[in-house]
Amino acid sequence: MTTRDPSAAGASGAGRVVVLDIVGLQQTHLDEGLAPNVADLLAGKPSGPLEPSFPSVTVPAQTTLSTGQSPAAHGDVSSGEFDRERQVAEFWERDRGGRTRLWEVASDEAGLTTGALFFQHLIGTSADVAVTPSPIEDEDNNLIEMDCWTTPDGFYDDLREEYGHFPLHNYWGPVADERSSEWILAAARESIARSDPDLLWVYVPYLDYDAQRHGPDSPELREAVGVVDDLVGEFLDRLETTPRWAETAVGVVNEYGFNAVDTPVFPNRALREAGLLAVRNDDAGGEKVDIAGSSAFAMVDHQIAHVYTDRPTAARKVLESLPGVDAVLEGEARGDADHPNAGDLVVVADADAWFQYYWWTDDADAPSYATEIDIHAKPGFDPCELFLGDEGLVTLDPTKVSGSHGRIDPDTRGFYGFGGPAAPDGPSDRIVDARRFAPTVADLLGIAEDVSLAFERPSLFAGPQV
After folding, report:
1. How confident is the model at residue 8 (pLDDT cuts 50, 70, 90)?
2. Are 278 and 250 contained in the same domain?
3. pLDDT grade, residue 429 (50/70/90)?
4. C-alpha span between 126 and 152 (Å, rounded)
5. Which of 197, 282, 332, 405 is spaced 20 to 30 A from 184 at the CA atom?
């Protein structure tokens, strides 16, 4: 049995930690009274802005939060992965791969019961409880049947019987809304009721949609914060009735904030015009990028583009002159993204700009998947999937996008907090490095010395802020 002994004076320790990743939630939302349930949970407890690692996009941010390491160490530098040998860019792969997060080491090495719901790369996790979408699709990525990969086996069948199928179309796409977050929190309640995990990590996605659709300062996002807060309040009300509430700490975290944007930038069009990117017929009336036949290709992800090139000097010259580009980074200048998985060049957009993957200039030449919700086929992240199109399901008008992220700016900090009866009292509003979140969870559980994750920063309760 693991002895739980947090290192900080005054930290009583937690027998259970529940982490809610409420993507898009920021300190200003609490300051303005938009999230009273979260504010009540964290009153008098440590909370404040979170400084994300670079780049602050979904998969790198999630892996940093759950490992205590920067992308330069853990290797997740984008929500897509570029295979240099196969010359293929693949987004939103589902398998765990070689990733080891806190819930895995807490289970495998510290003997705790753990769970993780709806984080990326969960298939194959050693967590005791896990749920992640794994729809059954045909060879063209068309949905045949909704399904989720779960552990234990059969858990999704039970969830479906009680709550219906996971609403995949409300999880991403033009009709994405709060219903997916509501279902996920219901699954979290069931996970606690059935398995009573010592550590449960839950992704709550709703704010992400309206922040991209309408922008971070929009009335739509402010309203959405209230909706999510109500859902979280209901979840907390149920959690308080569980037998272990007195030994529970609740971690609230947000991966990143959003910049208001109005300028889509097209690095692949610029590379094509310069003769560095090649295209070919996609056999469906459009064009697809010929990555293997190109000297440079940009795998875009919000405000960051990873450029894979055998002609870096030529590609740099093209991209540095492109309006909307703030910086072109190479080698050690890539900072937290200085990893072999990163592009030879890492391009950062201006604060009011973002990168779209398009390489065509005439919409008639767009590949067949461009107007579909096809997250695995597109060699770049496509927020246009949040908007209905005139010709297909998805718009080809990138000017509709109003919010993006990826840069590190004061206005795009995330948020952290630790509340509940087992969370120690502490200061609020101080800015904390995202790498401190995982060691703080481990410290609360008393397992920081028992797990093999190489935390790059200390727990919030183990020393001065770094």
Report:
1. very low
2. no
3. confident
4. 10
5. 405
User: Domain boundary at 401, 424, 458, which?
Assistant: 401
CATH of the domain at 150: 3.40.720.10
pTM (2 d.p.):
0.95
Rounded CA-CA distance 228/225 in Å is: 5
Q: Is 250 in the same domain as 273?
A: no
Quote the strand ranges of 8-154, DSSP E. Answer: 16-22, 47-51, 80-83, 88-91, 114-117, 129-133, 136-137, 143-145, 148-151
How far apart are alpha carbons 82 and 70 in whole angstroms? 19
Q: 168 with 146: CB under 8 angstroms?
A: yes
Residue type at 194 in one-letter notation: R
Instruction: Output the domain CATH number for residue 307.
Output: 3.30.1360
Query: Taking the mean position of all CA atoms in its chain, how far away is CA 362?
Result: 32
Q: Are residues 83 and 207 in the same domain?
A: yes
Axis crossing angle, helix 219-240 with helix 178-195, rounded to the nearest 10: 10
Last residue of a domain, one of 348, 382, 401: 401
Q: Examine residue 239 and state whether it is found in any structural domain, yes or no.
A: yes
What one-letter code names the amino acid at 137?
Answer: E
Phi-psi region of 202 (alpha: psi -120 to 50; beta: other; left: phi over 0): beta
Cα atoms in the Cβ-side hemisphere of radius 13 Å centred on 147: 14
Tell me 153's DSSP state. T
Span 87-126, pLDDT tens digits: 999 999 989 998 999 999 999 999 999 999 999 999 999 9
Amino acid at 462: A
pLDDT at 137: 66
Residue 450 lies in a domain: no
Mention every residue, 6+ apart, whose C-beta is less than 8 A from residue 414.
26, 49, 50, 51, 52, 56, 61, 253, 254, 255, 256, 257, 434
* Distance in angstroms between the alpha carbons of the first and the last residue of the chain: 32
139 and 269 co-located in one domain = no
Question: Which residues face 48 on adjacent strands?
Answer: 416
Type of residue at 147: D
